[in-house]
Design brief:
Blueprint (H helix, E strand, L loop, with lengths): L3 H15 L3 H7 L2 H22 L5 H11 L3 H12 L5 H14 L2
Helix pairs in contact: 3-4, 3-6, 4-6, 5-6
Protein name: Rap1a immunity protein domain-containing protein
Keywords: Plasmid
Organism: Methylocystis parvus
Amino acid sequence: MITAAAASMLAGQAEAANDFAAKTVMEKMQASERYPYIAGVVEGLTYSRFARDGKKTEGMGCIYGWFYDKPETLDLIYAAFGQYPQYTAGAIISALAKKKACGD
């Protein structure tokens, strides 16, 4: 059984997660704020991949290339945000990078 305090804490976490939901990014951020935010998410993914790969740079480079070298990637990300508005931006971008470009 969940106590009232635990239920309150879980509700707070759900609210915090909604702050980073794709819907929030698209509806509450100005267009000029979205790109830097998304680029920051990509930076986090690339570093995570670099660390996970034992400091090898191939996977990291793949993610960078997928995002920065292909202008259509931003449109792909925005479309996915519209399709999956309840998921976090990081989860969506990570799934797209894995699916379209860079594997696990």
